[in-house]
Design brief:
By secondary structure, the chain is α+β, with helices and mostly antiparallel strands. It has a domain of 36 residues. A two-stranded antiparallel sheet has the order 1-2.
Length: 72
């Protein structure tokens, strides 16, 4: 996957992306250290010259756990 971070090195990564069917067309998982970084990620996706041509709207969901065990 192309590195989607701006030229200056940021402390966040896009860790997973998948197309979906239904209300959303794409789900992207990001790793970041604080909520300010999340704001940078969303703002970057909305303002990047290449990405903004493809994005009509974004919905941000925050998970508090890295993984969730469904077996319990």
């Amino acid at each position: 996957m192309k590195d989607l971070r701006p030229e200056e090195q940021q402390d966040w990564n896009i860790t997973y992306a998948s197309p979906t069917y239904g209300g959303w067309d794409l789900i992207i998982e990001c790793a970041f250290n604080n909520l300010e970084d999340l704001d940078k990620i969303v703002s970057f996706c909305r303002t990047d010259n290449d990405l903004k041509e493809w994005i009509d709207a974004t919905t941000t969901l925050i998970s508090t756990k890295k993984s969730f065990n469904l077996e319990n």
